[in-house]
Structures are given as C-alpha cells and as structure tokens.
Design a protein that fits this description.
By secondary structure, the protein is an all-alpha fold. The protein contains 17 helices and two strands.
C-alpha cells in the first residue's frame, strides 16, 4: 500500500472524505433548529421557512444517483472537488442572504454540492481499501455520518444561543475551504471506466422528477392532507415517472441504475434494511427534542447532552462493528443491530412524562449501540456487492435511500404525531387539567403512539437483514 509521509494513502483518503461526509450530513439536521428564528427575521410563516430544508433535500436526493454516475465516468476526484466548491459557495451565499427566497436558492446550490460529496464518499473509500478492510473503513465513515446527523441540532442550538442564525453557515466556511484543499492535495484520481460516456439523460430526468414529486407528496401531504387533489396528483406523477424510469433503465445500454444489481440478495437486502432503519429512526430524531424539552421539561443544553450520548456510543461502536464484519460477515451483525434499534424504539415508546433520566439514558444507549452495530456492516455489504465501475452509483444509491427514508419518515411521523396529540388532548379535556399539563400529557401521548408505530415498522427490518444472504457475488 502506497504511503505519503509515513501514512498509507487509504487512511488519507478516508480522512479526506470523512470531512466532506460530516459536513454534508450535518446539514440535514443543523438548520432545522433555526426555523423559529428565521420565521421572525424574515417575517414569514413556518410553512415557507421549512423549504430551507425541503429544497436542500429535494435537490440532493434527486441528483445524488446522477452525480454518482458522473463521478464513475469522469473521475471521482475532480467531481468530488467540484462538489466541495459548490458546497462552500452555498455556505457563503446562505450566510449573506437578505431574504428567505435568497436563502432557499442558496441552499439549492449547497444541496448540489453536498449531493456530490456524499454520493462519492463511500466509493472513494471502497476503492482505496482492500476488500478485507472495507468494513472497518466504512465503519469509521459510517460513524462520522451518524455523528453529523445527530450532532446537527446540538451544534445549531449552540451557535444560535451565542451568535445568530447566519453563524450556522459562515462558521463552517473555513472547514469547507480546508476540506477542499485537502481533497485537492491528497486524493488520487479514480476513473472507473475508460469507455465513452453515453449519459442516460432520460433516465436522469425521470428519476429526478419521480423523487422530487415523492418528497413533495410527503411534505405537502402533512400540511394539505394526503387525499387532497394537489397531493394526489403529486403521488400519481411520482408513480408514473418511476415506471418510465424503470422502463428506460431496462432498455438503455448504459443505465443510470443497473437494476440487475437488485437481483443480488446482499445488495437488495442491505438497501431495503437501510430504508426501513432511516424511515423509523427519523421519527425519533424529530420527536425526541419535543419530548425532552416540552414533555419532561429539560433545557436545550440538557437535551443536547442526552442526544450526544447516543452519538458518542455510535462513534465508538461503528468502527468496531465494521472491523468485525470483515471477519464474520454482515448478516448476523446487521440483524443484531436492527434488533437493538427496534428494541430501543419500543423502550422510547414506553417513556412517560415522569420517566427518570436513567430510563431515558438506557434507551439512548441501546439505540446508540444498535445504530453502531448495524450501519457499518450494512454499508460494507452493499458496497461489496457491486463491481468496481459501479461503486459511485452504489454509494449514491445508498445515500439516496437514506435521504428518502429520512424525509419520508419525518413527514409521516409528523403527521401521526399531530393527529395522535389532538386525539389525546380531546380525551383529556374531561379531566379538568390546566392548559400546560394538558399540552404536556397530550404531547407525550402522541410521542408514545408514534414511536410505537415506528418500532413495529422497524421489526420488518430484522427480517430483511436476516434474509439478505451470506456471500458476496463474483464479478
């Protein structure tokens, strides 16, 4: 293995993409905590402010597979660096925005850059490490990604308290520049294919349209109702475009997504399990701050410390789990990890407004262990199930599924939580409670019901992890 100044290139590549992956995934959660502040600053409604995140997710999710394929063909290093440039420019423009429209447009630029960074990270690491160390490497990368998602609300709240909303963006510009320079200096070019590009434009257009309509369906469905005509039109459009995309991929010579990959049980089972995990865990990420702050009465700092506990445990467990998957395979570890995640959701659903700090911490510990045990082996099994010239596509697909699961889970969990909170409030009106206690009890009731449903859905992931198969394919 080649070395640079005594350090193997594989570790330098991992360090480089870890910076980008952390920055990219951090942005999926760090901005949300500023929504109330943004609504006041720009004198607009929360339904408008939420597009600061929705636009970011729409662009990132819709383009990730396309950009991953471009990286496979044109070279992952140059495309990755371009992504870092766009991401950093987006941060600067966000911090300078004078209106909510400017902020949303700046987030779109930032979302394109993040999509490139996240789409190619796993592909670069997989190509840099030998097969027998892939799980360990992706375990470290997975722990960084988990940390970015979980630390976002804590860091965002801290910056809002000591500075202002613009600090969420401009304080990270230096990190973006450093990451860009490191990628330029340390990364080696990876061009998986020397064939001339026959880019699947029709496939790219139908995929982007289908994913965009799908995310709009869930986000607008919560606000307008899932059976209203505009929302139903979005759902129908998403389905039609998905059918057209599948038909296009089956007949084109160089498809954007090789659907034959899903015939492999490891690849299909890993992606399905990932989708189920992110779908259900997103309910916890959305509702836990509401439960701890409004339901229990903890401060924002105490809430951040609780959530950080799960993040730290995941950071420790994920690399160990990845290393172990190189020895024993992914099937058993993914099943155990998904089981622990499911158990933690059941534990969370049993928490009440009188639960002790110890019981809350126990649930977070189980969740942190389960996430760490599951994530690394699952990523390793997905990336190990594809040929080298499709690593960028596979990496992008994995994160596309993660984003879809998170976006869908947040929208669905929000709808369930709101309806169940109203239900419990109606049931408690006969108990002559003061308004504050009525709000607290109905909130906790809605939280419990939503997390119970998430736990039930998560149990399906145990089965998909168990039946994914044992061996990697031969290409």
């Amino acid at each position: 293995m080649e070395k640079t100044k005594g350090i193997s290139y594989k570790w330098l590549a991992l360090l480089t993409v870890s910076i980008g992956s952390f920055m990219g995934t951090l942005d999926t959660s760090i901005v949300n905590i500023s929504f109330p502040k943004l609504a006041k600053v720009f004198e607009t409604e929360l339904s408008v402010v939420i597009w600061v995140t929705v636009a970011y997710l729409l662009v990132g999710t819709g383009l990730m597979l396309i950009l991953g394929r471009i990286g496979d063909v044109f070279g992952r290093k140059k495309v990755y660096i371009l992504g870092f440039v766009l991401f950093t420019i987006g941060l600067i423009l966000c911090s300078l925005s004078q209106s909510i429209l400017q902020l949303i447009l700046s987030r779109i630029i930032q979302g394109v850059g993040a999509a490139v960074i996240v789409a190619l990270s796993s592909a670069i690491v997989t190509a840099a490490f030998p097969d027998q160390e892939r799980g360990k490497a992706l375990g470290i990368l997975g722990s960084v990604i988990s940390a970015g998602i979980l630390i976002g609300p804590v860091l965002g709240g801290f910056l809002l308290d000591i500075l202002d909303w613009r600090s969420i963006f401009y304080t990270r510009v230096p990190v973006g520049i450093i990451g860009l320079v490191i990628a330029w200096i340390l990364l080696k070019e990876q061009k998986a294919s020397d064939i001339s590009l026959k880019f699947d434009l029709w496939g790219a257009a139908t995929l982007f349209g289908s994913l965009s309509f799908l995310l709009l369906f869930f986000n607008l469905g919560v606000r307008l109702g899932f059976v209203t005509p505009p929302v139903l039109i979005l759902a129908g459009s998403a389905v039609i475009l998905l059918v057209l995309f599948i038909a296009q991929e089956r007949r084109t010579e160089q498809p954007l997504v090789d659907l034959n990959l899903f015939r492999n049980h490891l690849f299909a089972g890993g992606n399905i399990s990932l989708g189920i995990m992110t779908l259900t865990v997103s309910a916890l990420i959305l509702l836990m701050p509401f439960y701890l702050i409004d339901g229990i009465g903890y401060s924002a700092l105490e809430t951040g410390l609780f959530l950080a506990a799960a993040s730290v445990i995941t950071l420790v467990i994920a690399p160990l789990s990845g290393w172990l998957s190189d020895k024993v395979g992914s099937r058993l570890l993914c099943t155990v990890g998904m089981t622990l995640i499911c158990l933690s959701l059941f534990l969370f659903s049993g928490l009440s407004n009188e639960s002790s700090s110890a019981s809350i911490l126990l649930s977070l510990v189980v969740f942190g262990i389960g996430t760490g045990v599951f994530t690394s082996p699952n990523s390793s099994s997905i990336m190990g199930a594809v040929p080298n010239d499709r690593l960028g596509t596979a990496s992008a697909l994995m994160y596309t599924i993660r984003q879809i699961g998170m976006s869908t889970g947040i929208a669905v969990a929000g709808a369930i939580f709101t309806s169940r909170q109203f239900f419990h409030a109606a049931q408690l009106t006969h108990d002559n409670l003061d308004p504050l206690m009525l709000h607290k009890l109905s909130l906790v009731g809605g939280y419990q019901d939503t997390l119970l449903m998430a736990a039930i859905v998560c149990s399906i992931g145990i089965f998909t992890s168990l039946t994914r198969g044992r061996k990697q394919p031969n290409y």
